[in-house]
């Protein structure tokens, strides 16, 4: 990218991040609502943190179809609530037992386990509340499809299933296809949903275009996880904002363990290139999706 | 009720219970799906147990509007999945730490805490999957409303919020209005949603009729909890299929603690009568809702 485009992209990212912060603040119940502690915990886990990768993907896909920003905000908020709920529950002692997230104590450390459990539950519900209360697309039937896309992506055959496979694979030797299957569900499914939801918020796409977009999303989803594994090995906790090196310490299968650091980095590059290729038919309209794939693979935290 | 009607009602209940068992079996992913342990746990918590009160209410409300049974099954399955997820999480050590439910070990006892956490999460998602994948009513806009009704009823301003208030009230002195507020959210909201969802599966109701139905649902929801508190004091664990006397032992506020046993029983009767009164405009078509209110208040477990 030329320097100007890099600056434009960074400005766009910051704008979407600010816009999402305001939208999430509006969509989440106020801390003054009873029970206050539950609403505090929900807001603590969602607001003021996170790279907002999934909303960014939704907005970038929305740019392909001239989507209404208010619709993208709602879709982005639902995606971010699902993502946040999965982190809150994943960090709990019964799962990863993590104490640090986005540089802050995790929800169960700050609010106790019972509140963390309920806050995660209520955040998931809030996502479906937003998606069913707001007009997201011209056709209510398409909106039902969007809700179903999010449900499939985050349920036991999607994200939750991936977390299950991850859980049951601790200390097991996974093959590369098994590891890939796990991440396609655990991280990839929601990233795919983010791109698809964004693309539903504007002018309808042809099936061919939607398939190309879906291929982009699959590559980005997998690349995201490969890079996560690389960063978990290389970065320190302060840069990462969460406990580094945990996966290796927990004997969890990672791309780095399976492919070596060099192999993992090559894999990330290949996936980025495949994502770029998938965007070719969209031309200039896909420049945000293009830049985002680069950002996701080249990030340092 | 005359003896014949009692028999008819019991036959109808058994039929709906069997039908729901088959529907839930079909809607839940098979145990052979990866991750098998997660799907086993989801099926364990939902199948082969429970009175199916919420689906029964949806079917009874559906009878008012000549609803298609296939639609009622889908609505009933979603309601039961939400109910089951809330029980799985509520039983966990971080919350009520209960070991017995419906006469079987609770999910975290049988499958471990991590799986219980994920199974509850995935059951909630599965409910929204069912509601968005199946045609439930003639108008897709109305179906979006139905999804929103379930989300509002089960989120932090509904069921989850009620559980939060319950959690934060342990050892506190609650007034009767505070106790009522807690139960209206914790149990009442989902019972109301059950009646409303059923009523959306057929011929549209007038606003006036829907308000009357909603008043019925509020009374039944509250009566349900008052009777739960009475049974928790009076029944033994074997009859109840869960640990009896836990609320009192945990110093949780109950209707019996607040009103005395006699007062609590009078309250349940009053609510039953108010529910009956709300059904008056519907005549003979409401006979199942009528019988169900009687069943809920007069049950022994």
TrEMBL record, chains A, B:
It comes from Chitinibacter bivalviorum. SUPFAM superfamilies: Terpenoid synthases. Belongs to the FPP/GGPP synthase family. It holds the Pfam family polyprenyl_synt. InterPro entries: Isoprenoid_synthase_dom_sf (IPR008949), Polyprenyl_synt (IPR000092), Polyprenyl_synt_CS (IPR033749), Prenyl_diphosphate_synthase (IPR053378). GO terms for cellular component: cytoplasm. This is Polyprenyl synthetase family protein. NCBIfam families: FPPsyn. Keywords: Isoprene biosynthesis, Magnesium, Metal-binding, Transferase. GO terms for biological process: terpenoid biosynthetic process. Its cofactor is Mg(2+). GO terms for molecular function: metal ion binding; prenyltransferase activity.
């Amino acid at each position: 990218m030329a320097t100007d485009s890099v600056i434009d992209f960074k400005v766009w990212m910051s704008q979407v991040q600010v816009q999402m912060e305001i939208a999430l603040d509006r969509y989440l119940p106020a801390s003054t609502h009873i029970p206050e502690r539950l609403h505090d915990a929900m807001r603590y886990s969602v607001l003021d943190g996170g790279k907002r990768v999934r909303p960014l993907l939704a907005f970038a896909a929305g740019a392909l179809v001239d989507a209404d920003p208010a619709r993208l905000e709602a879709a982005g908020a639902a995606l971010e609530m699902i993502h946040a709920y999965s982190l809150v529950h994943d960090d709990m002692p019964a799962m990863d037992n993590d104490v640090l997230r986005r540089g802050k104590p995790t929800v169960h450390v700050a609010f106790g386990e019972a509140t963390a459990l309920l806050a995660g539950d209520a955040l998931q519900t809030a996502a479906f509340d937003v998606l069913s209360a707001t007009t997201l697309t011209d056709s209510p039937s398409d909106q039902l499809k969007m809700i179903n896309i999010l449900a499939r992506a985050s349920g036991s055959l999607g994200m939750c299933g991936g977390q299950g496979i991850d859980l049951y694979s601790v200390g097991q030797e996974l093959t590369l296809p098994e590891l890939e299957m796990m991440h396609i569900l655990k991280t990839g499914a929601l990233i795919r949903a983010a791109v698809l939801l964004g693309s539903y918020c504007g002018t309808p796409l042809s099936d061919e275009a939607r398939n190309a977009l879906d291929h982009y999303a699959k590559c980005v989803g997998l690349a995201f996880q490969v890079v996560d594994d690389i960063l978990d090995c290389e970065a320190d906790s302060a840069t990462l904002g969460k406990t580094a090196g945990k996966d290796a310490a927990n004997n969890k299968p990672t791309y780095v363990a399976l492919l070596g650091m060099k192999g993992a980095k090559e894999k990330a590059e290949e996936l980025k290139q495949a994502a770029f290729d998938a965007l070719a038919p969209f031309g200039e309209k896909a420049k945000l999706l293009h830049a985002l794939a680069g950002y996701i693979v080249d990030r340092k935290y």
